[in-house]
Amino acid sequence: MGITIQPDNNYYSNNDDSEPCGTCNKNVTWQDDGICCDKCDKWYHSQCQNLSPETYTKLENSDEQWCCIPCCEPRRNREDTHQSKTTNLTRKAIKNIGCLKIGTLNCRGMRTETVGNTKKEHVAEDMRAYNLDILALQETHIESDQPEMIETIDKKRRYTIYYSHSSEMSANIPTTTRKGVAVVVREGAKVIFKPISDRLCVLKAKINENHTICLVNAYAPTLPISEERPEIRESFYEDLESVVTRISKREYLIVAGDFNAKTGKAWRDYPTVLGRYGKGEVNSNGKELLEFCDRQNLILTNTLFRHKMAHRTTWESPPVAKESDRRNPYRNQIDYIMVRKEKLAAVIDSRSHNGMMTHTDHRLVRMKLNIRMQNRKKEQQSNKVDIEKLKDPITKAKYAFNVEMKIMDAEDQFVKGKNLTGQEMWDNIVQANHQTAQDMLKCERKRYTHNQKVQQLSEKQRLLHQQFNSVKDESLREKIRKERNEVLTVIHSEIRKEKENKIEEAIRPIEERKQDSNRMYVAMKCLQNMRKKVPLVVDAEDGITTDTETQIKIITSFFKDMFCSKDSEEIDRIPPTKMRDSFTEDEVRKAIKCLKNSKSPGIDKLKAEHLKCGPQLVHQRIAQLLNHIAETGDYPKEIKVGLLVPLQKPGKKRGPPSNLRPVILLSILRKVLAICLIRRIGEKVDAEIPPSQAAYRFGRGTTEQLFSIKILAEKAVTTPNYETHLLMMDMSKAFDRLERKTVMEDLKNILNPDELHLVKVLIEDVRLAVKVGDKIGEEFKTNIGAPQGDCLSPILFTLYLAKAMEGNYSEGDDSKENHPDLPPHLRDHCYSSMERTGQLIPLQYADDICWLGINCSHQIEQIKSEIPSILERRNLMINETKTEEFKISKRGDKMWQKCKYLGTLLDTNEDLKRRKRLANDAMDKIRYIIRDRRITLEIKLRAFNAYVASIFLYNSESWTVSQVTSDAIDSFHRKLLRKVLNVYWPKKISSVRVYELTKERPWSKVIQQRRLRFYGHIQRMPDDVPVNAAMAEYYRPLKMDRGAPKFTWRKNIGKDLDRLGLSIIQAKEVSQNRKGWRVLVNSLDPT
C-alpha cells in the first residue's frame, strides 16, 4: 500500500538523498516533481510517467495508491516471474541472516469476532505474513494476565501472547476495559514477561550469549484525555521513565507502542531524537514524547528512513461525512518504535504497513533489527593519514622539509663516529615519515567534499534558506530566493569540476599506457574495482566460517604447507660483497619514481607517496642503506617480511583455501631494492631466455603470440591438405613452486657475486603473515616459491622456466643455440630449420606455454606426453584441466574458434561477439558518468575511450575484417556514441553528425591504423621470434582450391599497403624507421 510524495524540498541535495528515476535514470531531486510506485518502490519523474500537472497535484495531496507503467503491464511469462521472485526472496533471506523483525500495532480489541474467525487468529496470520518475531499490541480490551496460545487459521503456526492489565505502579489511575497491552512471540521462545499496568509491560528475550532484547510496550493516553486530565499523561511518562531507566545499557532497549503523539517534522528542533521523515504537525503529546526521548537518549526509528507517505502513516480516522473544514479522512503518524542512539546502527529499516488481516484503524509498524550490527566504539585510528593532501604543492614542500629535519634530529641522537645498523638507518626514515604524516596529514571527518569554497557556500545557502522560510514579505523572499539560486549555481559548478577531476584521475593510468594491450588490462582492472567487495568465505570443519581469526588460522595453515617444503634444500652461502658500482642517489630516485601510487603498504606501512614527496636526503640515505646491505649483509627485518592477502580467484568456488590467490604486500624498501637490482641484471637474464617467451620483455606482448596462432589457423581453414595443430598448456601454481636453490644455481653463471648476493637477500627465508581485514596472523617461514607481488619474481620465473624447458642435450648439439626450449629429439622439427613440413613453433607467455605444429601431429603428441615429466624435474606441474589440443583444417571441426588464448578468442567473428558484450558491460559500469549532464562531453569521451574502446579494440590488429564486418563495427561504435551524446529514440541524429560532435574516428579506421603499425612492428622484430616464423609460413605459397578465395588477414594488410602506395618489399624497408613508419601510417587519417 502506498501513496505518492514529492521529495523533501526543505533539505539541500548536498546530503545526497536523491533517487535515480526508473525511466531516465537521472536523479529525482528536491527540485523535481517526483513520484514513487507503490509496488516496486521506484522513484520516477512525473513527466517520465506521462502525468499531467493536475494529476500529479491530485496524487500529491492524497493517500491514493499509484503504480508505474512497468508494474501496470501484465506479466507475460509466469514461469520467469516465479523464478524472479524466488531469487529475490533467496537474496533477501541471505541478506537478513541474524535479522529480527519487531512490530507494534493497536489492535482495537482482541475479543472481537469476525465471520468464521477470531481476531486472535487474524493477529497470528499477520505475525506469519510479516514474519514478525515479536509484536507489541495495544488496546487489547483483555482483563486477564495469563499467557495464551494463539494459532493461525490453518493451525500450522502457533504463537504465545502475554497480557498485561494490572495497575501496580499506577494505582491512582483508574483502569478501564478500553485499555490493556500485550506482547506476541513465537511459540517456544524463552522470554521473561513482566506486566506493569494496563498501559505498560516489559518483555526480555535472550537472543544469544551476548545479546538480550528488552521490549517496553506502551499505550499513551489520547490527546483529549491528556488535555482534559494532564495528570494521566504525567503519570504515564513517569512510569515509563522509571521502567526505561532501570534497563541495562548493555541490552537492546526497544520502546514501542501507540503514543497518540504527532511529532511532525520537528527534526530541526530535535535533531538527535527525530528523523527528517515524520508526518503532520507536532502537538502537545508529541512535544512530551520528544522531551522524554531526549532525556532517555532514544530516537524514533520510523522517522529515520525515506519512505513514501503511505509507509509513514500509522493511523487513519474512521470515514465520516465530508466537511468543508477538513480532509476526509485524517491520516497521522502516532505509533512509534524507539531505540537507544548507541544501538542505532543495528536498525536496518523501520516503516508502517497496511493490508493486515487484523481489523483496526491503525497500521502495523515494523522494525528490522540486525543484532550483529553494533555501533561499537571505534578504536582511535591515529595511524590513518590522508595521502591526497600531498597533492598540494605547499603541503608537499612542508612535508619534505619536516621529514628531513626529523631524520637529521634522529641521527644526531646517536653517538658520533658510531656506524648505524641497517635497521637503525631504516627506522629513522620510517619514523620520520610517520611522525610527519601524523602531524600534517591527519584524516579529517568525512565530508561531502573537501573543497573549502563549497563548504562555505553550502553554509551560506543554508542560512539563506532559513531566512527565506522566516520572512513573509514576498518582495524580500524573491530577493533571497534569487541570491540563494546564485549561490547554488556556484556550488553546482564547483561540484561538477570536482567530479570531473576525480574522473580524470581515474582514467589517467589507462591513458598513460602506451601499449593497447596493457591499456585493456588496466581498464578491466579498474572496472572490476567498481564492484562491491565480496566478503571472504573460508571452509572450516563445521561449515563455512566468516570469523576473521578463524579464517586467518585456516589460511595460514594452508599456505604454510604450500610454501614450506621439507624436501627443499637450503641456498648455498653467498658472502656479502661490496658493489662494483655503488647504488647512487639518482638510481634510487628513478626507482622510487617507478613505484605506483595508491597501493597497499607492507609491514612498514610506508607508501610510495611518502618517498616520492620526501626530501633529497631520503634518497641519499636509502642509497647508503642499499650499499650497506650489499657490503655487510646487515638488512632491516622488514625487507624479508610480507603480508599475504588472500584474494578469491575469479570463477572459482568460494570456500576452499586452494581457490585463494596469495598476493604479497611487501615493504617499500624491498620494492626499491628490487627495481634497482632489475635495472642492473635485466639484460643479463633476458639473454638467457629464449625468443619464444614474450612475457615481461621490452617490445614484446600478447598480440604477436596470438597473431601467430590466428594466421596459421586461417591458412589451415583456407588451404586444402593443410593442418595446423595447436597444443596449449597451463601450469598450476607456477610461481608458488619455484625452487629457490635451483634459481640461485641458474644465476651463478650469469650474475656478478655482488648481484647474486642481493638476489639471495630478497628470496631467502622470506617470512609471511596472513592479513584479513585489519587483522594480521602469525608469521611463518617459507623456503619455496617466488612472492606474487614482487617485481623480481616474474624475471626469476621466466629464467626458471627457460632452464626447465632446455631438457637434456649433448654439448655438441647445434640446435641448443637455435632452440633450447624443446627436448633434443624434437629440436630437428623446430622452426629455426625452416622445414616446409613438420615445423614446430613454440609460444610462451609467462606460465602459458603453447606449440604450433604444421602437419606434424606426431611431434605434438610426443610433446604432450613428455613435457609434463620434463617440467616435473623442477617441481612445475601442468594443470591437465586447462590443457587444450586442436587440429585445425579446412574440413575439420570448429571447436578451436571458441578457444580463448591470452584474453582473445581465436576466431574473429566469435571474438567480435564477445568484445561487444564486454563493451556493453563496460558501458553499463560507467553509466553514472555518461548519464550525468553536469559532466562535460570531453570528459565523457575520455572515459568512453579509456574504459570501453580500449576493451573492444584489444588485439583488433589481428582481426580479419571484411567490408561487411567493418560496417558492423562502425555501426556498433555509433550506437555507443549516441549513448554518450544522450540521444535515444525517438530522437534521431545522422552518423556524420555523431562523428562531428564527438570528434571520433570510425573504429574501422582505427583498426586499419593499428594493423599497419603492428605490421611495421613485426618487420622490425628479430628473425628468431616466433611471429616471424609464422609470417614466413603464412606467406609461403600453396595450391589453392577452385572458386573465389576467402577474405583473409593477408588481403587486409594488402589493401592497407596499397593505400600507402607500397609493396610488401617496400613496406619492409620503410618500416625499419619506426618514427617514419608511424608518420606515414598516421597520414592516412590525420587526427
Key structural traits:
33 helices, 1087 residues, disordered N terminus, seven-stranded mixed sheet, alpha+beta, 41% helix, six-stranded mixed sheet
Walk me through the structure.
The chain is of the alpha+beta class. The protein is built from 33 helices and 32 strands. The strands form nine sheets. It has a seven-stranded mixed sheet. Helix 9 (422-440) packs antiparallel against helix 16, helix 24 runs antiparallel to helix 26 and helix 29 (1003-1020) packs across helix 31 (1049-1060). It is globular, with a radius of gyration of 37 Å.
Write the layout of secondary structure elements.
Elements (H helix, E strand, L loop, with lengths): L18 E2 L6 E2 L5 E3 L6 E3 L7 H8 L8 H4 L5 H18 L3 E8 L12 H11 L4 E5 L9 E4 L6 E7 L16 E6 L4 E5 L4 E7 L5 E8 L3 H6 L1 H16 L6 E7 L25 H13 L1 E3 L14 E2 L14 E2 L2 E6 L6 E7 L10 E7 L22 H20 L9 H19 L11 H19 L3 H38 L4 H14 L8 E3 L2 E3 L2 H16 L21 H10 L13 H5 L3 H17 L8 E8 L11 E7 L1 H19 L15 H17 L5 E9 L7 H9 L4 H11 L3 E6 L2 E7 L11 H14 L8 H4 L20 E7 L2 E7 L2 H16 L4 E2 L5 E5 L11 E2 L2 E2 L2 H18 L1 H4 L6 H16 L10 H18 L10 H8 L4 H18 L5 H10 L13 H12 L3 H7 L3 H9 L5
Parallel strand pairs: 5-6, 12-13, 22-25
Antiparallel strand pairs: 1-2, 3-4, 5-19, 6-9, 7-8, 8-9, 10-11, 11-12, 13-17, 14-17, 15-16, 18-19, 20-21, 22-23, 24-28, 24-29, 24-30, 25-26, 27-28, 31-32
